[in-house]
Design a protein that fits this description.
single chain, alpha/beta, Rossmann fold, 4 domains, seven-stranded mixed β-sheet, binds thiamine diphosphate, binds magnesium ion
Length: 808
């Protein structure tokens, strides 16, 4: 290379570096001004709540420099600078979220559903199909519970490992480039106290996945300092034992100051490069970050910080430190970047620019509202003219007009009041307003209630039943049907993988994956540690990256360990992104008819009330269960499948159309027709009902037996009420506590389907006792409903109806 050319290159690169530094500076100032102005917007009442990323700007700039297309973030509410730096958040979008603008074009993270500071990218097309995730930078959608971002982070990172090592997925180029994608986690220092943090850190160390975990350490968790949070008051010291040495697994651990620009850049470069290449996780402990405005808009930090602490935070504020560093920096050629005065000028100009963007966001937000007001207002005014209550209506309209910063709630209140004032009157403007409100109500459904489940063409609820077909009458153990069906799935779908406690080597405690690990390898069928929350997290993260995980939770009772993450994260993914992300994870477990306080296998009411957003399948046998897996793998929603623990060795006919037969969601099955009483049940208890029905027939009582098959969705075609029209009597049976899933089924059938209208006898539920079942067969018999209990409950209904025909 000629000297001349080398010189040009050198000068260009110094210029480039200067420009990059100045551009970083501008972004830091922009983000800071967003925080300062955001707080004002909340305190003046235009937004409800604010939690900002001030004090954490510089580290996030360094992290963003290493973030590539295809990478994923799983973080928390302080990360606005990062989101801006990767080009996934504009200032206007920031304010749109603060105001809760419901238009996803304006507020792409959640369409106004999540409070500000909760970030997400849109990873799906409008029709629910995947975008090319390798052409964009990705952030999984934040949730508010501290450390709730951790379990899914594990799966996001593990997906890279699966993609890198499973050659059958080599052409999945919309999701991966040879497994080179890194999952970036962020968390606050105090939130590292949560169990989910430790569980995830340990699991990622064992699994050796490409995860870069940043801790923004500002020393506080709201008002509680870190000496009450962390052993030794220092998270990286406490984690020192996790450090990788030459021949161990573990972490690369880094410490860096949150105001030290060159060190931050270097640290992130080193950490991410190493992690990306070697699939060894890194932990970056970013110390001495600050929170200039305190925790959130809910309080002021002067209440709990000493003047010295506040003074220190001012001095080490990363924006100030960055300014000083830039002003003092000299390149080897003697050139400088900018003077303090120039930097102040830049900062001032950015402040103005942020103000303008905020105003634009407010104007767009209020314009949407005004568009609705302008639809309603003329009708309210016309109604005033046509009503005998003109004066009162005019007052209601005037009150609405005088509301400061009115929202749709004010509009609906006013319109309903106006309609109430016209009770008994009838004229066209009134009908027009009624119709308009009904239409608006539908629009509000779209804004606030859509996308709890998939709305795409792949929704599993849209998948029709395919009956199992049989060649002969050969009977096999139920587990064999599951096993052969899984085998078919693994052979045909390279993106399907399963993992859990004892899932790998022995193929599950009930051996329904027997031999699968040998055949398909450890990457596809694997053992995990005993850590239910992160087993589900692995599943969520991998599902967010296009894989089809089946996460196994060994027993239903232990679902409680991961119920929080199912409820807060998995169940809300589509909803909280308004269809921007999906994680079609299947969680597989087994329960019912278990014995013992911690093997009860029945807390269904608790579960279904907490996981709306996840389908809940309760098959009564293994053919049904296998059929659910086939349905769900064709769909794009998350689901929980609860197999019957006592069904693995029950005999069933072996279907021939493995992998093809499908159990439909939300379609109950009338298993036996009858005339006198309808019994509605599911799962193992259903099989007891079959026995009881047989005994009842012997005393002249004909029972119609209905298996609901799925608790969520529940009987989408309202078919159970048809049975009530015939029998006029109903008993709901399960082994949950009183008021649990039987209470839910009763509400669905009697209230939602209008079943009360057809009843001639009081509706009944039969449940277990409110305590957990005692150990042993007698413990079970006297704790849970048994065949005799079901017989007696039905007989009692018939006795009450006709004591002569059904005497005691
Ligand atoms: C499970 C849970 N418990 C409590 C809270 C309330 N809360 C929100 S933020 C916070 C403090 C978090 O501190 P830290 O992790 O250090 O993050 P920082 O806000 O300091 O950046 C608490 C207690 C919550 N959101 N979730
Ligand atoms: Mg903190």
């Amino acid at each position: 290379m000629s000297n001349e050319k080398a010189e040009v290159l050198e000068t260009t690169s110094v210029e480039d570096i200067k420009n990059e530094i100045l551009s970083d500076f501008q972004l830091v100032c922009r983000s800071r001004e967003v925080s300062l102005l955001g707080r004002k917007e909340v305190l003046t009442g235009k937004a409800k709540f604010g939690i900002f990323g001030d004090g954490k700007e510089l580290a996030q700039i360094a992290m963003a420099k290493q973030f590539r297309n295809g990478d994923f973030r799983s973080g928390y509410y302080r990360d606005q600078t990062f989101m801006m730096a990767i080009g996934s958040l504009t200032v206007k979008e920031y304010f749109a979220a603060l105001y809760a603008h419901t238009d996803v074009e304006k507020e792409p993270a959640s369409g106004g559903r999540q409070m500000g500071g909760h970030y997400a990218t849109r990873n799906l097309n409008e029709d629910g199909t995947w975008k090319n995730l390798m052409e964009q930078k990705n952030s999984s959608a934040d949730i508010s519970p501290t450390a709730g971002q951790m379990p899914r982070l594990l799966g996001l990172a593990q997906a890279s490992k699966v993609y890198r090592n499973n050659s059958d997925l080599a052409d999945w180029t919309n999701f991966t480039n040879g497994g080179n994608e890194v999952a970036f986690g962020t968390i606050g220092d105090a939130s590292t106290s949560e169990g989910l943090f430790w569980e995830t850190i340990n699991a990622a160390g064992v699994l050796q996945v490409p995860m870069v975990m940043s801790v923004w350490d500002d020393g506080w968790g709201i008002s509680v300092p870190k000496k009450y949070q962390t052993t030794k008051g220092n998270i990286s010291d406490a984690l020192a034992g996790f450090a990788k040495d030459e021949d161990s697994n573990g972490y690369k651990i880094f410490k860096v100051k949150g105001w030290d620009y060159p060190s931050l850049i270097k640290t992130y470069e080193d950490a991410v490069e190493y992690t990306r290449e070697n699939h060894v996780p890194s932990l970056i402990h970013v110390e001495e970050v600050t929170q200039p405005q305190g925790h959130s808009t809910s309080g002021s930090h002067e209440r709990y910080k000493t003047p010295e602490q506040l003074e220190w935070a001012k001095e080490y504020d990363c924006v100030n430190q960055f300014k000083k560093w830039i002003a003092n920096h000299k390149f080897p050629d003697g050139s400088t970047i900018a003077t303090l005065e120039e930097l102040e000028e830049t900062h001032k100009a950015i402040k103005k620019e942020v103000r303008a963007e905020q105003k634009a966001a407010w104007a767009e937000f209020t314009k949407d509202l005004k568009d609705d007001f302008n639809r309603v207002m003329p009708l309210m005014e016309q109604i005033a003219d046509g009503s005998k209550n003109k004066v009162f209506i005019e007052k209601a309209v005037a009150d609405f007009k005088a509301t400061l910063d009115p929202i749709r709630k004010d509009m609906f209140s006013a319109a309903k009041k106006v309609l109430r004032l016209t009770r008994g009157e009838d004229f066209p403007a009134k009908t027009a307003l009624q119709n308009l409100l009904a239409q608006l109500q539908e629009e509000m459904y779209d804004k606030y209630s859509s996308y709890l489940y998939s709305e795409s063409a792949m929704s599993p609820v849209k998948i029709d039943e395919v009956a199992p077909s049989y060649d002969d009458e050969e009977l096999v153990d139920g587990r064999i049907i599951l096993r052969e069906n899984f085998k078919h799935i693994f052979e045909n779908r390279p993106e399907v993988l399963s993992f859990g406690e004892d899932t790998g080597k022995i193929g599950g405690v009930n051996q329904s994956m027997e031999g699968m690990q040998e055949q398909f390898g450890e990457l596809r069928v694997s053992d995990t540690g005993i850590r239910e929350a992160t087993i589900v997290g692995q599943g969520i993260g991998m599902a967010l990256r296009g894989l089809r995980p089946i996460a196994e939770i060994q027993y239903l009772d232990y679902l409680l360990y991961c119920l929080q993450i199912m409820s807060d994260d998995l169940a809300t993914i589509q909803y909280r992104t308004k269809g921007g992300q999906k994680a079609p994870l299947i969680i597989r477990t087994r329960g019912h008819r278990l014995e013992g306080v911690w093997h009860a296998g029945s807390p269904m009411g608790g579960i279904i009330n907490l996981v709306k957003g996840i389908h809940v399948c309760v098959p009564r046998n293994m053919t049904k269960a296998a059929g659910f897996y086939n349905t769900l793998l064709e769909g794009d929603d998350p689901a929980l499948v609860i197999e019957c623990l006592n069904g693995y060795r029950s005999k069933e006919k072996m279907p021939t159309n493995l992998g093809e037969f499908k159990t439909p969601l939300g379609i109950p099955e009338v298993v036996e027709e009858g005339e006198d009483v309808t019994i509605v049940s599911y799962g193992s208890t259903f099989n007891l009902c079959v026995q009881a029905a047989k005994e009842l027939r012997e005393v002249g009582i004909s029972v119609e037996l209905i298996d609901v098959q799925t608790l969520i969705p529940f009987d989408i075609n309202h078919s159970i009420v048809e049975s009530l029209k015939k029998t006029n009597r109903v008993l709901f049976v399960d082994e949950d506590v009183e008021g649990g899933a039987t209470g839910y089924m009763m509400q669905q059938v009697l209230q939602k389907q209008g079943g009360y209208y057809y009843l001639d006898s009081a509706p009944k539920t039969l449940t277990s006792k409110d305590h957990r079942p005692a150990y042993g067969s007698d413990g079970d018999y006297f704790s849970k409903p048994n065949v005799e209990d079901i017989f007696d409950a039905v007989y009692e209904i018939m006795h009450e109806f006709s004591p002569e025909d059904f005497p005691y």
